[in-house]
Structure formats: C-alpha cells, structure tokens
Hints:
By secondary structure, this protein is α+β, with helices and mostly antiparallel strands. The protein has four helices and four strands. Helix content is 41%, strand content 22%. Strands 1-4-2-3 form a four-stranded mixed beta sheet.
Amino acid sequence: MSLIIGRKPVLEALNSDEEISQVFILFGQEGGIIEAIRVAAKKKGIKVNQVPFEKFRLITQNKIAQGVAASKSEQKLYELYDIINESKNLNILFY
C-alpha cells in the first residue's frame, strides 16, 4: 500500500487526478483542513476511516503524519463508458 502522509498532501491529492482508495484520519482530529479533506473525499466517493491512535500508528509506520494519511490505488480504475469512448477515439472496433 502506497501512502500519502500529511494534511495538505492528502488534500492536494484529493483535489487532483490522484487515484486514492481511502483516507485515514486519527480519531479526534478536527479543524478546517480536516473538514475540507472529508468533503473532498465524499465528493469523489472515497471512504474516510476515523481510526484510533494505535491503528493509525501502524498504518503510517510511526511517520509524522499530522493525523491524516491516504492510501493510493495501485491500479487506475476506468468506467466502461470511458473505455468505450476512448476506443472510439482511437478507432478501435469491437466485434
């Protein structure tokens, strides 16, 4: 699992084309940027997990994470509609 660690890096990743599979927030974290992370994740349909300290520490491997981490998707996922449209753009025919 590839991780993005820190409040601003996670928020920037959520607001970009980065493929994020889920977000981890240390239990008890609050504030404007935490709420912005929750909203951005919700808009993209990304699961947000509020986790206790011990689990968060295991996930982040004791790195300084500002109470926020996100796991990057190992594979890019595509909607069937996007694949069909891309094949039309490339003039690929399906039989």
